[in-house]
Amino acid sequence: MRNTIIDIVEGTILTTCDTKIEVIKQLFESNFPMTTMIITSDLQPVGIISRKQLDKHFRSMHEYNLFMGEPVSSFMQKNFLSFEMSRPLEDLVIKAMNRPTEEMYDDIVITNQQTILGIASIRSLLLTVVPY
């Protein structure tokens, strides 16, 4: 059974704000089933972008072709949950569940003394706090 935040952290790709959408899409395609990337500035998280969010923005090839040269900063989610692993797991559950409905299932950035460790999914968080 997993009991701590570190037990649910998954690795992900860190990229910078100026990374082009074309590169982001290629990274998602070559790193399936990864669902979220962390966007950084000076090694600090400033946004996230999910595969689902990218697909939502670019429903057609025409839309994708229009924006493939744009930086990910134009499309990243700037309001994301970042959580320090030293805090109690219960605090993470409360913060995650108090997010707006449209953000409820977004992955969570996990840090250790402001160093990015990775992400945690709501699924892994729930499996940790609710025994099955």
Describe the SSE topology.
Blueprint: E1 14-16, H1 21-30, E2 36-41, E3 44-50, H2 51-57, H3 61-67, E4 82-84, H4 89-97, E5 108-112, E6 115-120, H5 122-129
Parallel strand pairs: 1-2, 4-5
Antiparallel strand pairs: 2-3, 5-6
Give a structural overview:
The protein is 31% helix and 23% strand. By secondary structure, the protein is α/β, with parallel strands linked by helices. The chain has a single domain, classed as CBS-domain (Roll). Strand 1, helix 1 and strand 2 form a beta-alpha-beta unit. Helix 4 packs across helix 5.
CATH homologous superfamily?
A: CBS-domain
If you consult CATH, what is the topology? CBS-domain
Average pLDDT score:
90
Radius of gyration: 15 Å
Count of DSSP strands: 6
Structural class: alpha/beta
Sheet-strand content, in percent, reads 15-25%
Please state the second-level CATH architecture.
Answer: Roll
Give me the number of helical elements. Answer: 5
Please report the first level of CATH classification, the CATH class. Alpha Beta
Query: Strand order, biggest sheet?
Result: 1-2-3
Secondary structure: helix percent: 25-40%
Q: Which shape, going by the Cα principal axes?
A: globular
CA distance, first residue to last residue:
10 Å
Query: In this structure, how is the largest beta sheet organized?
Result: 3 strands, mixed
